[in-house]
Specification:
526 residues, alpha+beta, Dipeptide-binding Protein, domain 3, 4-stranded mixed sheet, peptide transmembrane transporter activity, signal
Length: 526
Amino acid sequence: MKTPLKLAALTALLLPMAAAQSDIDPNGKATFVTTAEPTFNPWSPNSFVESNLLNELLFPGLTRWDKNLRPSPDLATSWKASNDGMKWTFNLRRGVKWHDGKPFTAQDVAFTFNDIVLNKELGANQSSEWRNSVEKVNVVNPYTVEFVLKKPWASLPTYLGYYSGILPKHKFEGVKDPWKFVEFNKQNPVGTGPFKVVRVSSGASVRLERNDAYWGGKPKLKEIEFKIIPDSNAQLAQLLSGDVDLISVANPETLDRLKSNPNLVVDLQTQNLYYWISLNQEDPRFRDVKVRQALLYALDRPAMIKSVLRGYAQPATGPIAPIQKNFYTNKVSQYPFDPARAKKLLAEAGWKPGPDGVLQKDGKPFVIEMPTAQYQQLLPITLLIQQYWKNIGVKAELKTMDWNSYIQQVVVKRDYQGTVNWWSTPADPDVLPYYASSSAGTGYNIPGYKNPALDRLLEEGRRATSTSARKKVYTEAQELMAKELPYLYLWYPQMIIVKNKRLQGMRGVTQAADFQYAHEWYVTRK
């Protein structure tokens, strides 16, 4: 999700050589897609995968990721932590203007965090994580801010580059509820990014034009349009017709057709992203680790990867993906397909076959209500899980809905028993926001999993500064998560990005990182 989204990549193809200046179309336009009506505010609790990439063009953060996915300067030019790790000082870029011409200053940074993100009453996107770690943001002078922490946070600069855009204080003055500020969030946002919104056609498209005053120089593209196209087949059709320049392909079965098209380029990106099943631990059935382990043993994940993803993934062992070579380990508990072992574990947990073949305990059948979104491959994945679980006596009842309704029910209200989705995270082993007991029921801890031992490890990881110290901590954390299964880990997919050859200048990293350098994109003359 944030994701859906939502976080690390090496392209499978060499980037084309930069075009000569004479080949660049000065009036070039690129067209992308989004799945639903976007919200122009990266902190809105209703802003997810449909809004994330567009918001990267409008609202830069203090940092962004370089080609090696390390934090590099954006609205901040440099930063430094205090000796005890409890304060971080950020020097801000001078001469930056908001889209309406007002100057960007430290007041905007302090407002974004103190008044929006750290305001518990607002429940901003990602807010539980920031509130747990940041006490306040002080204005030192007009171009310097100081993050005062509640506890050390070594990966703060990385997280500041992860969908953490800065908002304009002057636009929100007098606004009581920033989430109901429709004029800004849905119509006329004001950012500091390389592009600005000039037209919103409700339910149809959003048009952006380049910001000639962008601090990084005049963007090479004149215009970017986002078409709102919920259906992946319709997205594909528009890509093939040339009406759309780039999509993320959900169905690998279409790849042969795409690779044979001379106008398209296929990039395979290995990201810091993993698919999972979340089992709501407000339901006492799922607090039993034997039940969680059994439900994972029941799945033939290699077969699912072959069926749904045509092999473009590998089984996951936890939230730290292989691309993080310094920290990833697969020397943890493994769950190969073993339905007999699954049945044995369920029997040990007290579940016995009923007359209809569905397992029962205390006279109640083992039925899991599983809402799913009509988005990419979520529905076929959930259907496969339903069949595998049926074979061990567990009944999954599916309910399909559109993406926005799904987010409201599952992520916002936590009204579900089981569900399938994914996390895309920064390329850093710090996964505390997704697992902290303090985030159960809020934020990104979707299952509501609580484990003080894991909390201590993840906090220790935030205090560690050397690679060796962090590796030791996160190896132990991976071992614990693989055994306990806060989520049922499915796989690490390869993201399939297909774009028109005329669109150039992308760095071939993750989409999130690519969109942080949109001023470099261009299209060649036809």
